[in-house]
Please model this.
Amino acid sequence: MDCSLDVITLCGSPRGVMLLRVRFRQYFNINHLKRNNYMLICQALRKYGYDNFREAQPEILKYCFPDKCILWEDYYFHLLNPHYNIFQKAGSSLGFKHSEETRARISAYRKGISLSEEHKANISASLKAENHPLFGKLRSEETRARALNISPPSISLYFKNNQKKPIKGRYVIRKI
Model:
């Protein structure tokens, strides 16, 4: 979405047409904009008004399968450097920093909450071995590469070239 006042970009990859409809329905709901005034896009829509946005309909840069949305969103993040996106990486809040005010509110909220030792043990047990949601599942090369923040061909080349040196100086990959 571009604002004609300053050509500012927003990138997004809602998962499916229904979520795209929901997102735009929210952006055109003044109550949603008021409730979510912390969001840059909501602030801009309220400040500049809908008429000052070049397009009420988004320019769709890429149609793709849902499992590729995050990859393409990340590509366009780096290409367009969008102003209204608060996260630096598509599909991840990694690197996002809460304001001191928000951190204080979260801390105050959490102060009265304590988990019993039994509850902590149950959580721990539920995430071990066979109970872990990813136990025994093979991950795609693309998923493994994304987790290491490298390109997918890097893993194939690592094995093809029979490398022993850790990737990024930290990660040793072995075939099982």
Notes: Confidence is low (pLDDT under 50) at residues 1-8.
